[in-house]
Design goal:
With 195 residues, the chain is an alpha+beta fold. The protein contains six helices and seven strands; from the N terminus they run βααβββαβαββαα.
Length: 195
C-alpha cells in the first residue's frame, strides 16, 4: 500500500519558527520591552497595569520564543458605567512580524482570557483605531477571536462568560474521584509487641 503524504507543501522561503510559549506577566516583567513597530517603551499605561496587577494578579501576556519576547498583550482596568461589571481594557498589543499568522496572538489572548476568567472579569474591551498604533489591534483579528463591535466604531467587546469556557473535568476524572470516595479504607494494622 503506498504511503500518503499528509503534510501540506510549504511556501517558498518558509522557515520553521521557534516554539512559542505564553506566560501571564506583571508590570515589572514588561518594563524595558519596546514595540517592534513604533519603538515606544512598554507599558504605555503604567498606572493601569499596576492597578490590574493589584486587582487580578496579572497585567497581560507575553509570548516567548527561545526566551525572547515575540508578542505582548497588556490590559488595565476599564471604567464602565456599570459598577458591578469588572472590565479589562487591552492597552497595547503586538506580535513580532516573524511570528504573525502562526497563532501567537490567539495564544496570548486565550491565556490572558483564562487568567481574567479566574479573576472574575466579565469582559475585555479593545480598540481597532489605526491611529493608536500598538495600542490598537487589527479589526480582523478582533472579529476572528470572539470580539463584537460596539456602537463606537473602533471599540470592540468580548464577554468572557459567553466566549471563554472554564475547563471541565472529564468523565474519567469524575469516575476516579467517585471510586476514591467509595473505596473502603483499609483497617489499621495491629501494633507489634516487643518482648
Amino acid at each position: 500500500m503506498p504511503k500518503m503524504n499528509l503534510t501540506r507543501p510549504r511556501p517558498a522561503g518558509w522557515q520553521e519558527a521557534a516554539v512559542v510559549s505564553v506566560e501571564l506577566v506583571s508590570p515589572a516583567t514588561v518594563r524595558g520591552l519596546a514595540c517592534p513597530y513604533c519603538g515606544r517603551p512598554m507599558p504605555l499605561d503604567e498606572a493601569g497595569m499596576v492597578a490590574a496587577q493589584a486587582a487580578w494578579g496579572l497585567c497581560g501576556a507575553v509570548a516567548l520564543a527561545d526566551g525572547v519576547p515575540v508578542g505582548l498583550l497588556l490590559v488595565s482596568a476599564a471604567a464602565v458605567g456599570d459598577p458591578q461589571a469588572t472590565v479589562a481594557l487591552i492597552g497595547a498589543g503586538w506580535v513580532d512580524e516573524a511570528h504573525t499568522g502562526r497563532g501567537t496572538g490567539r495564544a496570548m489572548l486565550r491565556t490572558l482570557a483564562g487568567g481574567l476568567v479566574r479573576s472574575r472579569v466579565a469582559a475585555v474591551l479593545a480598540s481597532s483605531d489605526p491611529l493608536r498604533g500598538c495600542a490598537a489591534l487589527p479589526a480582523g483579528f478582533l472579529a476572528g477571536t470572539g470580539f463584537a463591535p460596539m456602537p463606537r466604531p473602533v471599540l470592540w467587546r468580548m464577554d468572557l462568560a459567553t466566549t471563554v469556557r472554564p475547563p471541565k473535568r472529564s468523565v474519567l476524572d469524575r469516575l476516579g474521584r467517585l471510586v476514591q470516595a467509595v473505596r473502603p479504607v483499609a483497617p489499621p494494622e495491629p501494633a507489634r509487641r516487643n518482648r
